[in-house]
Design brief:
Blueprint lengths: L2 E7 L2 E8 L1 H9 L3 E5 L14 E3 L5 E5 L3 H8 L5 E5 L3 H8 L3 E4 L27
Parallel strand pairs: 5-7
Antiparallel strand pairs: 1-2, 1-6, 3-6, 4-5
Length: 130
Amino acid sequence: MQSVLWGWHLGRRVGWVIAEEFAARECAEATAWVLVPSLPVRAGADRFWPELRRLTDGRMSLLVYTSLAELVAACGRYQPWVAVPATWLERLRQDCRFDVVAMNLDIPEPLRHKANTEDDWPGKPEAWDE
């Protein structure tokens, strides 16, 4: 069995298969979730890459947001993201090697993702354009 994490990319809801049975069980039992900005991910991808940011003090940070409203206000509407159980933050720290988690941090406008007009690719479901 595989588990799907839902995110938002280019103004559309998309899902990513992330893992096998253990992840599905963890997701089913999760009571707290966070939204993690990610690098753009294509439909059908089996993994995502969190978008790490360097803070002004030089530390590498994983940004997390407590709601979609917070993420859009802080990162802009074109920021790709993925929802993960909050319990996965330590696992992400081990895999991605960031120094600190920054919650609901505002991204300056010049550093935000811009609209991408080329959001079509082979295999993209037509329903995403509706």
